Recover the amino acids of this structure.
């Protein structure tokens, strides 16, 4: 879109009650400085489609296990090879296991080659990921795809005995971030009778008065608060009186101690959701099983060795995904970079011993903590294919760049140094050819646990 969309385009079905909710969230005396504008962009018929989709997901069961593939797999693969340019150019091999795996680098190189021909471009949305284990991606999506996330969060919440009930005149979900630069906005959820939705940044710079953070949360009284371990660690420090019905931790690994602290403080279930932008919510942690129970019956999960072959049952391997609910980006043996053991449970497959993205924060020279995503933003203008940032136990920071990109060493050092308020930055050559853990630390408190 070459112009800024209108509110009618952002909220095609908005009622007067919805307008009142938007005013309530944006004009409250303690409201943050919202940096962006967004909206659900859902047409009336799409709202009804989403309600039907939520009912379908609620009733769906897994038709596959560690011993056999899902019955829908062959038809899905046929459609991908017919509709997706990248795969059509390769030709379909005889067996599923012979299909070459793809990874984040393949998507980053030319994302258009992974979008099916049939996807209508007039409703296409693209957004940039900030991830913790790879360079940011531009991913294709659609208003319906964005709306489908709720169905899987509802599925996770039901396992904790929670049915969402907030609707008209209430705030349903508050999304928390803690970054120097954060996408923040307000919206409404049409399938929940236009309950409020807000993404806010707990960093003090986004508020007229830092004390407004707790006041705003108490005034909004969201039914569910979602965030990551870094923003939840900050939430624990605020004098918030409101008690949500649940906390959802997404995008990074949540430590048992932080989960326990959050549950005790807010008196509600704390759900650790294994999720990624490329695939949405994949699993929710079950303490009894000590594993992440999968949430998407139409997502087939493999665990692979370094050569792309399935590992023996009970062994740890790299998690690869096939299927999904994003019809703009059907995944086919997509290697996530995360590792785990695939097991069977009465509810379906689950991932045990998950080793994935870790929440990392970095200590600035003046003693403040910043989110690793702030470093992603700092390095975003540079055309880097991959890099790592490590903070040693004494606070020293090293940035590693690929050999071919060492000409950006000086600018990368300056940008990271500025984000860390003047810390000296050492730039070294990245020697590993494999996927790397992008942000690491040996500094006490750096894991935000």
């Amino acid at each position: 879109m070459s112009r800024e969309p209108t509110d009618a385009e952002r909220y095609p079905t908005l009622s007067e009650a919805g307008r009142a909710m938007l005013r309530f969230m944006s004009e409250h005396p303690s409201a943050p400085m919202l940096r962006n504008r967004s909206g659900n962009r859902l047409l009336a018929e799409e709202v009804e489609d989403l309600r039907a989709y939520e009912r379908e997901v609620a009733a769906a069961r897994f038709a596959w296990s560690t011993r056999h593939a899902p019955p829908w797999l062959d038809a899905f693969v046929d459609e991908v090879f017919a509709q997706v340019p990248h795969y059509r150019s390769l030709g379909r091999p005889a067996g599923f296991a012979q299909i070459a795996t793809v990874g984040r680098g393949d998507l980053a190189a030319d994302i258009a080659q992974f979008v099916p021909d049939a996807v209508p471009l007039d409703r296409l949305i693209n957004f940039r990921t900030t991830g913790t284990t790879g360079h940011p991606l531009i991913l294709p999506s659609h208003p319906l795809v964005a709306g489908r996330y709720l169905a899987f969060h509802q599925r996770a919440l039901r396992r904790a005995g929670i049915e969402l009930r907030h609707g008209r005149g209430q705030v349903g979900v508050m999304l928390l971030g803690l970054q120097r630069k954060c996408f923040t906005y307000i919206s409404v959820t049409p399938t929940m009778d236009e309950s409020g939705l807000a993404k806010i940044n707990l960093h003090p710079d986004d508020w007229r008065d830092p004390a407004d953070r707790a006041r705003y949360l108490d005034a909004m009284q969201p039914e569910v608060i979602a965030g990551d371990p870094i923003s939840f660690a900050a939430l624990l420090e605020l004098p918030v009186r409101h008690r949500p019905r649940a906390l959802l931790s997404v995008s990074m690994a949540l430590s048992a101690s932080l989960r326990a602290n959050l549950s005790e403080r807010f008196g509600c279930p704390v759900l650790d959701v294994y999720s990624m932008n490329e695939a949405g919510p994949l699993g929710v942690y079950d303490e009894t099983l000590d594993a992440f129970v999968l949430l998407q019956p139409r997502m087939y999960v493999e665990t692979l060795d370094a050569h792309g072959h399935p590992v023996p049952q009970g062994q740890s391997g790299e998690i690869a995904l096939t299927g999904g609910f994003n019809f703009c980006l059907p995944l086919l043996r997509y290697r996530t970079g995360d590792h785990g053991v695939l097991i069977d449970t009465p509810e379906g497959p689950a991932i045990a011993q998950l080793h994935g993205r870790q929440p990392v924060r970095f200590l600035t020279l003046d003693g403040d903590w910043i989110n690793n995503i702030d470093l992603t933003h700092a390095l975003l203008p540079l055309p880097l294919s991959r890099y790592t940032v490590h903070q040693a136990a004494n606070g020293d920071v090293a940035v590693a760049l690929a050999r071919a990109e060492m000409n950006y060493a000086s600018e990368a050092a300056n940008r990271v140094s500025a984000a860390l308020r003047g810390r000296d930055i050492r730039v070294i050559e990245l020697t590993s050819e494999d996927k790397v853990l992008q942000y690491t630390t040996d500094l006490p408190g750096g894991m935000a646990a």
